[in-house]
Specification:
- The complex is a heterodimer of chains A (286) and B (163).
- Helices cover 28% and strands 22% of the residues of chain A.
- Chain A is α/β, with parallel strands linked by helices and 286 residues long.
- Chain A has 2 domains: 60 residues, Alpha-Beta Plaits; 202 residues, Vaccinia Virus protein VP39 (Rossmann fold, 3-Layer(aba) Sandwich).
- In chain A, strands 5, 6, 7, 8, 9, 10, 11, 12 and 13 form a 9-stranded mixed beta sheet that branches. A 4-stranded antiparallel beta sheet of chain A has the order 2-3-1-4, with helices on one face.
- In chain A, helix 8 packs parallel to helix 9.
- The radius of gyration of chain A is 19 Å and the shape is globular.
- Chain B has 163 residues and is an alpha+beta fold.
- Chain B folds into 2 domains: 69 residues, no CATH class; 76 residues, PUA domain (Archaeosine Trna-guanine Transglycosylase, Chain: A, domain 4).
- In chain B, the strands form 2 sheets. Chain B has a 5-stranded mixed beta sheet with strand order 1-2-3-5-6. In chain B, strands 8-7-9-10-11 form a 5-stranded mixed beta sheet.
- Chain B is elongated, with a radius of gyration of 17 Å.
- The two termini of chain B are 34 Å apart.
- Classes of the chains: A alpha/beta (286), B alpha+beta (163).
- At the A-B interface, helix 6 and strand 7 of A face helix 2, strand 4, helix 3, helix 4 and helix 5 of B.
Chain lengths: 286, 163
């Protein structure tokens, strides 16, 4: 399946890696349609949906007659095809209709459009120009009206304002559940390089956070170097504290290697591949 | 019509094409802002927010369309807005909907009904049986004739073709 190096790492943290067949999942775009109406419309087309218990508007697709993205309802923007665990970070950030939210690594826009449903406004940053069209496409398809998109690197963003809520779904090494060739592409050196970029993003974005404001930091990596060890660095170097999360997943690992990390990291959520892909979510406050 | 030229978007106040497109469908006013050649529906609070970001803005609010070669090209989001207020519509059956979403033209066998002008050259919003706007086209053969036809200009299948 993949390199022993990674299998052995996961084993020491209590996870026996095995192949997973991810269930297709959608998020209902309640800006345009109610959950009940979409379920009925898709049922008529021969699709069977099952509510995902740990999500707000997420449904597993239990039976599909053909490709979801070919459906008229998809083209109408009634739903977004979004893996179940990937719907958690925006849920955990829990924006209100008063909040102007900063989304730091936005494309292709699953989390951006999810945040926009609840927030007053969303500022979506995307550093790679070639990823902007996908983001704009999804914002238009879902008829999202309250979002500003900037082709800006979060590492250099310096606005004249601060935010109460920030989502950093950081660029990461990914995980084997969403990419069959993952192990061929990844190495520990690569993972360490990613963690440096993650720190650079956080070092700058912390300046955009209001006092008592919250950051939700997430990745779809399984590696502690990109997750718990980043949170430990945020606690020690940026003076942040970890907040409780009420969400699906296991406790964060506090001793991934020889060194013990801050105990509060247990409050983070680590999701091993299974019914969803792998994910890591931390909620922090300044 | 209110025109917002905030100064940070390198705006030009050349709105005739946008306005004349809207007027083909309804007598409404749509407030917009421009970024380069692109039109957006955005309220004042969003434009004020954009000024504080100190960075180039790619889009703000809902994309309404853009000017290409001095011609206004609407977005699918704008067509949805117009469909709520316009009479210039053709309703198509399920097969017509599928064909239209694959960029095909609307033929007699697809048409369930229409409202507004029937004559060649008129622009029509195309709606499916669930009342969803799926695009727009131009009447190429009178809708009251024996062989009515509507040429596809833009349909929501475009979202897939862009990817």
């Amino acid at each position: 399946m993949f390199q022993n190096e990674f299998i052995e790492r996961y084993k020491q943290w209590g996870f026996n890696a095995k192949e997973v067949e991810l269930q297709e999942c959608i998020r209902v775009n309640t800006v345009k349609i109610t959950e009940e109406e979409l379920i009925q419309r898709l049922k008529k087309r021969g699709f069977e949906l099952e509510k995902v218990k740990f999500l707000e508007n997420g449904y597993f697709v239990k039976r599909a007659k053909h490709s979801l993205s070919a459906l008229q309802e998809y083209l109408q923007g009634f739903f977004y095809i979004q893996e179940a665990a990937a719907q958690l970070p925006a849920m955990v950030l829990n924006a209100s209709s008063e909040d102007i939210v900063l989304d730091c690594c936005a494309s292709p826009g699953g989390k951006t459009t999810q945040l926009a449903v609840k927030a007053k406004a969303v500022i979506a940053l995307e550093s790679q120009h070639n990823r902007i069209p996908a983001l704009l496409n999804n914002i238009e398809r879902l008829s999202i009206k309250n979002t500003i998109v900037c082709n800006t690197d979060a590492r250099t963003f310096e606005p004249d304002m601060k935010f109460k809520k920030i989502l950093i779904d950081a660029p990461c090494s990914g995980n084997y559940a969403i990419d069959r060739r993952w192990s061929q592409k990844q190495s520990l050196a690569n993972i360490k390089a990613r963690s440096e970029i993650q720190k650079e993003i956080l070092s700058n974005i912390i300046n955009c956070l209001e006092d008592n404001g919250e950051i939700v930091y997430s990745t779809c990596s399984l590696e502690p170097e990109e997750n718990e060890m980043i949170v430990d660095w945020m606690i020690k170097e940026l003076g942040m504290k970890v907040l409780d999360i009420d969400c699906f997943g296991e406790k964060g690992i506090t001793k991934p290697f020889e060194t013990e990390l801050d105990k509060s990291i247990e409050k983070c959520r680590r999701i091993w591949p299974g019914i969803t892909q792998g994910f890591f979510i931390a909620r922090l406050q300044l | 019509m209110a025109r917002h030229n905030t100064g940070i978007f390198h705006s030009e106040v050349t709105t005739m094409n946008f306005e004349s497109f809207i007027s083909k469908f309804a007598g409404i006013v749509i407030e917009y802002i421009k970024i380069g050649n692109k039109y957006f529906l955005a309220d004042a609070s969003l434009t004020e927010l954009a000024k504080k970001l100190n960075t180039k803005t790619e889009s703000i609010g809902l994309f309404l369309g853009e000017e290409k070669n001095e011609k206004f090209m609407p977005s699918l989001a704008l067509l949805e807005i117009l469909a709520k207020v316009s009479d210039e519509k053709v309703i198509v059956n399920n097969i017509g909907e599928l064909d239209f979403l694959y960029k095909k033209d609307i033929k007699k066998r697809h048409i369930k009904g229409f409202s507004g002008g029937p004559k060649e050259g008129f622009l029509k919003l195309v709606l499916n049986e669930s009342d969803d706007c799926i695009g727009y086209g131009k009447i190429s053969k009178d809708l009251n004739s024996e062989t009515p036809e509507l040429a596809n200009i833009l349909d929501r299948g475009n979202f897939l073709r862009r990817e």
